[in-house]
Amino acid sequence: MSHELAPVGIDAFDEQVYRALLACRAASPAELAGGLSTSSDRVVRALDRLHARGLVGRMSGVRRRYAAIDPQHAVEALIQKRSAELGQVRSAAAELARLFEAARGGEAEEVEIVSGREALGRWFVRLQQEAKEQVRTLDRPPYALTTANPVEENAMRGGVAYRAVYAPEALEWPGVLDDIRHLVAHGEEARVLPGLRLKLAIADETLALMPLSLDLTDVRAAVIRPSLLLDALTHYWQLCWEQATPLLTSQPAADDGSGEGAEEDGPAEEDRLLLALLVSGLKDEAIARQLGWSVRTMRRRMSRLHEQLGAVNRFQAGAVAARRGWI
């Protein structure tokens, strides 16, 4: 059995699981274990490691099924992490590509339309790889591939800042909240905004990617280069960010000198998350499911927070919590 991914830190059995998953559209741990003549538990551990490395993603809306991330993207992200020299080569390749486009007929169009899930995925990866300072996103379902983003964590390690505004609907998809928690722990700034109707990704001030519809049967997206349209989308993103509610924070909010900053006896991280999810508009059942609680437990925790805040309903609780720096 070949072991070609060893240089990027993937052991032989994990590579075997990855290759088996590449050979099918999607599979459960039990299905993979049957084909590999091993135990489901061993396959689950391998899938967890592969997911952490950005090689596989959990299928949206389906429990315990996984899909392989396109190796052209996922393995490339691992190579980027391991080798700064390849990063320099990639920058040179991007410059050569611009020269190639210019030779074929002048400057690239300000707006380019791309079609298909794979093309959308490739452009999303490219946009993040070309970012030097920051990536800003508006995120909502449905998802063209999987909910995982194999590039973001590596980009943040390289100094690229990520700020994301999520629609409440995104938080109801299996695995998304756990992914956000992980990314926030590594530096992402996350907020939630009810009523978010579009998806958008912006790299620095130079490139944007925007799906033209939420219909996954006809995936088309606009690649937008510096122009008035890019300026307008950047301004729209800023408006959404200012109206959105912080979802998770890697550290408690700092006191701003007004006397209304975060309190030393503020809530635990799970209670902060509970408040943010309530303010975002999620229903009690969806919040309880995301936090792994029963609805009864969730409501009991909310009642206790109401008492701490002196609030009579969730909307008042959200307003008071925001003033205190709890969310």
UniProtKB/TrEMBL annotation:
<dbReference type="InterPro" id="IPR051797">
    <property type="entry name" value="TrmB-like"/>
</dbReference>
<dbReference type="InterPro" id="IPR036388">
    <property type="entry name" value="WH-like_DNA-bd_sf"/>
</dbReference>
<dbReference type="InterPro" id="IPR000792">
    <property type="entry name" value="Tscrpt_reg_LuxR_C"/>
</dbReference>
<protein>
    <submittedName>
        <fullName>Helix-turn-helix domain-containing protein</fullName>
    </submittedName>
</protein>
<dbReference type="InterPro" id="IPR002831">
    <property type="entry name" value="Tscrpt_reg_TrmB_N"/>
</dbReference>
<dbReference type="InterPro" id="IPR016032">
    <property type="entry name" value="Sig_transdc_resp-reg_C-effctor"/>
</dbReference>
<feature type="domain" description="HTH luxR-type">
    <location>
        <begin position="264"/>
        <end position="321"/>
    </location>
</feature>
<dbReference type="Pfam" id="PF01978">
    <property type="entry name" value="TrmB"/>
</dbReference>
<dbReference type="InterPro" id="IPR036390">
    <property type="entry name" value="WH_DNA-bd_sf"/>
</dbReference>
